[in-house]
Design a protein that fits this description.
seven-stranded parallel sheet; five-stranded parallel sheet
Length: 772
């Protein structure tokens, strides 16, 4: 664009924003409410203050149209379930008695009632609560939250746009209720759901909403003709409503493919599309579809999922092309900014030269405003911002931080043999069983034990210099002694050291590897009140020194039972970090795998004979389009094997995955060539065990029998029942007993009770298997 561009006024907007507050005020208020220290009214006040602060900051930054309805106490899909009245029968009494307590009961469960299932939001690390729908589901509209939050923003004098999960995506994300017929499809409820959306839209229009955004990210996945027809029908119906605001249908995370012409032809008023990463293909597809004549296009040209600064000149070129394809073009991030930290300016410990390369939510909102200004008023209006942007991009490209010749040479020298264990599983399992001497249905945990307030205080004291390294190490050793002693007394067969020294399963390793940056305030919501600080992969990766050997060896010195070494796998190290965007992911994964390979060998040399390399993100990172998956799975499984293939046959390699749909990657799970895999299975009632059996999975597996994302304590009878269900799919000599995931977020009281019930269940079922 030139300085004399005559483009019409362009709006800057975003689809959503981080919810937690700069100091995680929402987390503290929600958890305080759960513990009875914060009243419901006080929680609501905190939430309202955070919403107001977000909208004010966006408006002050120059964002012309702020989103509403994206705020959530726990999860926006759960909010949609409430909006459409799809409350599972087991939760209806609780919701009727106390809406807020009932809401959290759906999310977390109670001692007597199980929560909704949880899984990953597309290919992100955000977890949503899966709607449970059946043929008898009766939808009813409840727009109170959406209307109230819109009115809050309007009361501040702001132009606001409510954001809702679209009806097609909501149904495609749902699962059949347990009492549904096997062939029931939630999408069959579309005709029943659309009138409820019509009522919500009418309520928002009555409240003064001019535009409403309906998010349909499920349409960027491969969709059948019937599903595309359903989308076309949904928006014909909603578009034909007389009493509605203008409709903006949004997609993100990838290209729309066959859904693009469907939405382009629909009688809606605008589309919001992702033009970053694989979504960049939307540009040519939109042109091929004839553009959006007479409609609004919200162009997501600022990457909403990563933390690197935008290439402003490249984005302006894209926007300039788009100007001819729609009636008006506005500027946004590619998706909700929920997936990035709040403010890079808070990171005082990052080198200022590197900080110039980073863009968190506040900086991304500013980039959107800059691009909107440049598109509307010409490049002269943003000359200073463009110059600073060019300088920062050049600084990163030429920095010695990004390239280490020794690391690159080692990665280039890897051969196929390096990622293959020389012995087949059938040979290894004999050696491992002889060496380990484990009983039938061996009991283990996933790795972490509760991170107590005392542990967090000790870590904070170390970081603040209030205690020295020696005192901190003594505190960690004391915690390890307690964890090991408890597991022995409880009857656990393969122990863990509890990971007391670890702040996070990715950050802990990132802080000890070259090429990573750690943040102090870079919190991102994972689920509910659980926030993580994803490290930033800025340069080439190497391991200067052992990272876990000391603590694992210390734990092993305390017991004759095997202690697992615990590592985070290469794919998860990428998935739960903000990755480099200047080289292929496969190249970065290989570097991380080689660093982990060194750690695995050192653990084995120190006497560790069970080593778990967790890959919970293997399914999460699976590309949304099937055409992109084979290449990903090839390098992802190769990276895992590269990490683990340098060990002896009697060293048992475990891996762990949780909270994802595993059916699409069962072959990849086999290709990892791990000896034992543990997976989340409690909420899905052993679905993954059935999927493994249907595929003919040949190795040992531990489908979880304790849902650790809920505070409820499963009884021994409940765990035994799940084990028996697991045995219907996995033979007893290959079945392990374990929780769904690590115990870091649980308290000690519930951990003791649940783990003891787990051991009791294993003994009961073991006895049944041994009985004549």
């Amino acid at each position: 664009m030139t300085a004399k561009s005559a483009a019409p006024a362009v709006r800057a907007t975003v689809y959503g924003y981080p919810r937690q507050g700069l100091n995680r005020e929402l987390k503290k208020a929600v958890e305080g409410y759960w513990k009875g220290r914060v009243t419901a009214d006080a929680l609501r006040v905190t939430a309202a203050e955070l919403r107001s602060e977000t909208w004010r900051r966006l408006a002050e930054a120059g964002v012309d149209e702020v989103p509403t309805g994206d705020f959530s106490y726990y999860d926006h899909v759960l909010d949609t379930t409430v909006m459409v009245g799809a409350i599972p029968a087991r939760h209806r009494d609780a919701v009727a008695a106390d809406a807020l307590a009932g809401y959290f009961a759906m999310a977390r469960g109670t001692q007597d009632v199980a929560p909704l299932e949880m899984t990953k939001w597309f290919d992100t690390n955000y977890h949503y609560l899966v709607p449970e729908l059946g043929p008898g589901t009766a939808f009813t509209a409840d727009s109170a939250k959406q209307v109230a939050e819109f009115k809050e923003a309007r009361a501040l004098g702001l132009r606001a746009r409510p954001v809702l999960v679209g009806p097609v995506t909501y149904l495609l994300l749902a699962k059949p209720a347990s009492d549904s017929a096997e062939d029931f499809e939630p999408l069959s409820l579309l005709e029943r759901l659309l009138p409820v959306y019509a009522e919500v839209l009418a309520d928002l229009r009555a409240a003064g909403a001019q535009w409403v955004q309906l998010d349909e990210p499920a349409l960027v996945q491969d969709r059948t003709p019937a599903e595309l027809d359903a989308a076309a029908h949904a928006y014909r119906v909603l578009g034909a409503l007389a009493d509605r605001p203008k409709l903006l249908v949004a997609s993100y995370f990838d290209r729309l493919g066959g859904a693009l012409p469907v939405l382009a032809k629909a009688p809606v008023d605008g589309l919001a599309l992702d033009f970053t990463g694989p979504g960049a293909a939307n540009l040519d597809a939109l042109a091929a579809a004839g553009g959006l004549p007479g409609k609004r296009l919200v162009a997501g040209v600022v990457d909403g999922r990563n933390v690197w600064i935008n290439d402003l000149e490249k984005s302006l070129a894209t926007l300039g092309t788009l100007l001819g394809l729609a009636d008006r073009v506005d500027v946004s991030a590619s998706c909700s900014l929920l997936h990035v930290p709040l403010d890079a300016a808070a990171e005082k410990e990052i080198d200022p030269q590197i900080l110039r390369w980073l863009s968190f939510a506040r900086q991304k909102a500013a980039e959107v405003v800059t691009l909107a200004t440049g598109l509307s008023r010409g490049t002269d209006a943003i000359a200073g911002e463009l110059a600073a942007n060019r300088s920062a991009l050049a600084s990163r490209a030429r920095s010695s931080i990004t390239r280490n010749p020794a690391v690159r040479a080692r990665a280039a020298a890897v051969t196929g043999q390096d990622s293959r264990r020389p012995q087949l599983y059938e040979e290894r399992v004999t050696a491992q069983r002889a060496h380990l001497g484990l009983p039938l249905l061996p009991v283990t945990t996933i790795g972490s034990f509760p991170q107590t307030a005392e542990l967090r205080t000790a870590r904070a004291d170390l970081n603040a210099g209030r205690i020295g390294a020696g005192a901190y190490q003594e505190r960690i050793e004391a915690e390890i002694r307690e964890v090991v002693s408890y597991q022995e007394k409880a009857g656990v067969d393969v122990l863990v050291h509890g990971e007391a020294e670890r702040n996070d399963m990715v950050q802990y390793f990132a802080e000890q590897l070259t090429g990573y940056l750690a943040t102090r305030h870079g919190w991102v919501q994972s689920y509910g009140s659980r926030y993580v600080r994803p490290p930033i992969l800025a340069g080439d990766i190497s391991r200067p020194a052992p990272m876990t050997v000391r603590w694992t060896a210390y734990a092993q010195s305390l017991t004759a039972r095997p202690v697992k070494g615990m590592l985070t796998g290469p794919v998860t190290m990428l998935a739960w970090s903000f990755v480099r965007d200047d080289q292929p992911l496969a190249e970065t994964a290989r570097q991380v795998a080689l660093a982990l390979r060194d750690e695995v060998r050192d653990l084995e040399s120190a006497g560790t004979r069970v080593i778990q390399v967790d890959e919970p993100a293997l399914r999460e990172t699976l590309p949304l389009r099937s055409a992109d998956r084979p290449a990903y799975l090839t390098w992802a499984t190769e990276a895992f094997r590269l990490s683990t293939s340098g060990v002896r046959p009697d060293t048992q390699i475990h891996t762990h995955m949780c909270y994802a749909e595993f059916g699409d990657i069962v072959q990849a799970i086999t290709d990892l060539d791990a000896d034992v895999i543990s997976l989340e299975a409690a909420r899905s009632r052993m679905q993954v065990a059935r999927e493994l059996a249907a595929h003919g999975y040949p190795r040992e597996a531990g489908p979880g029998v304790w849902d650790i994302h809920s505070p409820r304590v499963p009884s021994a009878e409940e765990a035994a029942a799940l084990l028996r269900t697991g045995l219907e799919a996995i033979p007893g000599d290959r079945l392990w007993v374990n929780p769904d995931c690590g115990l870091k977020t649980r308290g000690w009281a519930e951990t003791r009770a649940s783990l003891e019930n787990l051991v009791a269940a294993a003994r009961t079922v073991r006895g049944e298997l041994s009985a004549p």
